[in-house]
Amino acid sequence: MRLWGLNEREGYGNTQVPRSLDILAEGDAMALTPAGPTPDLPGYIDLALRGGFPEATLTLEGRDREWWLASYLEQVLTRDAVELAGRDPVRLARHFEVLALNSAGGVTDTTIYQAANVDRRTAAAYDRLLSSLFVLDTVPAWSTNRLSRLVKGSKRYIVDASLVGAALRVDTAGVMRAIAALWGGLAGSACRP
């Protein structure tokens, strides 16, 4: 059984708010409400980068959490991957970083393996390995239009946003700077005659 990381209701130790599984076990799914106030954009990014790993989510804050996540990712990409498949950890880490940059994106397989500087077969093997290590999930393409030809490829998702942050070495402030830069480019394009 695939286990996912903790959700917000499970992850922050607020004993005043009933746990999701307890509510579902009582058969009252309609009682599932947010555990707290809706966060603003930096708060939402912080929640995503906090992740769902119990140790990092429940017991660590700030730099300690970032260090734990970076160490966890390093262990997966170096020790676990080498033990399981004997793969080159440097090339695998580069491939993972490219996947992190494109998590949930609609980029082609060719774009991924060229950016990671690996060949197609190696990239496919890395994807299978990362899926076996439960850090990558691939969702097949789909279309609701039966008459259209299916041309979209599957999307790759890093299973926990905290691993994206660890791979790219960004925190909430870094993500906010990237959003501001993107917004500046969009606003500048919109203002041109």
Task: Explain the layout of strands and helices.
Blueprint: H1 8-11, H2 20-25, H3 41-50, H4 54-59, H5 62-85, H6 89-101, H7 109-116, H8 120-132, E1 136-139, E2 155-158, H9 161-168, H10 172-191
Antiparallel strand pairs: 1-2
Helix pairs in contact: 3-10, 5-6, 5-9, 6-7, 6-9
What does this structure look like?
The protein has 193 residues and is mostly helical. The chain folds into 2 domains: 38 residues, no CATH class; 141 residues, Orthogonal Bundle (Arc Repressor Mutant, subunit A), CATH 1.10.10. Helix content is 58%, strand content 4%. Strands 1-2 form a two-stranded antiparallel ribbon. α5 crosses α9 and α6 packs across α7.
What is the structure about, briefly put?
By secondary structure, this protein is mainly α. 58% of the residues lie in helices and 4% in strands.
